[in-house]
Amino acid sequence: MEESNRLDLPIRPRRNRKSAAIRELCRESRLSVGNLIYPLFVHDGDRDEAIDSMPGCVRWSLDGLVREVGEAHGLGVRAIVLFPAISAGLKSPDAAESGNDAGLVPRAVRVLKAAYPDLVVITDVALDPYNSDGHDGLVADDGRILNDETVAVLCEQALCHARAGADIVSPSDMMDGRVGEIRAALDAGGFEEVSILAYSAKYASAYYGPFRGALESAPKSGDKKTYQMDPGNSREALREAELDVAEGADMVMVKPAGPYLDIVRAVAEHVDVPVAAYQVSGEYLMIKSAAAAGWLDEKAVVMEALLGIRRAGASVILSYFAKDVARWLA
Prior knowledge:
The protein is an alpha/beta fold. The chain has one domain: Aldolase class I (TIM Barrel, Alpha-Beta Barrel), CATH 3.20.20. Helices cover 38% and strands 17% of the residues. The strands form two sheets. Strands 1-4-5-8-9-10-11-12 form an eight-stranded parallel barrel, surrounded by eight helices. A two-stranded antiparallel ribbon has the order 6-7. Helix 7 packs across helix 8. The chain is globular, with a radius of gyration of 21 Å.
């Protein structure tokens, strides 16, 4: 029997779906280019290199990076995040290269800010690209990931990026207490205006494989389960986000996005700062692969996936599709 109201008239929700214009008027969640951050890989070579594990993505030279950002910027993408592919000869157990003011990331930040002063440049703060062990933290002789010793190095890395001109530093390491220590270090260094986007709920996910291939940053031994979150936990995500906000995070992140939409929603309802969600490399590759095989319409699926992330409560989405989406939205 058709549902009816008090006047015994038929209720017809389809009236709000009867044309494209009316559907637009009634849409509850919207996706715009202003919601997007474009993750980009950079390396120290003279040539741009295609990434086998992530078709369509590139390890950019500095010149190529400037060109790629220029194209994205012209389409309205105003925020990017940098991930460095560090040569093996610069990796070490103490990750010393992470704080080198003449290193790859600081040079990339400077050239991008010179070329596009209004671009929001975000840098990843973690040791795995620089650590010969492949972990986000320093590794003890017995294999433990050292928390407080790692945080001290992360503070130096964040200061290095701030000196280069980064607008936002984004600690992705999941060490305890690092947001507060980085905030204190930035403030003491005169960088009170540099924001912190904290990876607050970063899960120990199987979806990161293609990214680690892009940076050759997989752990040499063990796994990251002692510092990244257990996929079965949700209340813990709220605790992590609450702690990061209390320590000074300006924004918090959930990673991955698609398999953790319930966490995005819960965190967005729990904190009073913007929530970011990262559509990670595994999500990207699954869509790309299915589209390449002809099973999915890439544009339609990407737009639906990103709208779903927005609907769950994310203000900001990190996506390798950002430039494509900007073009589709234009």
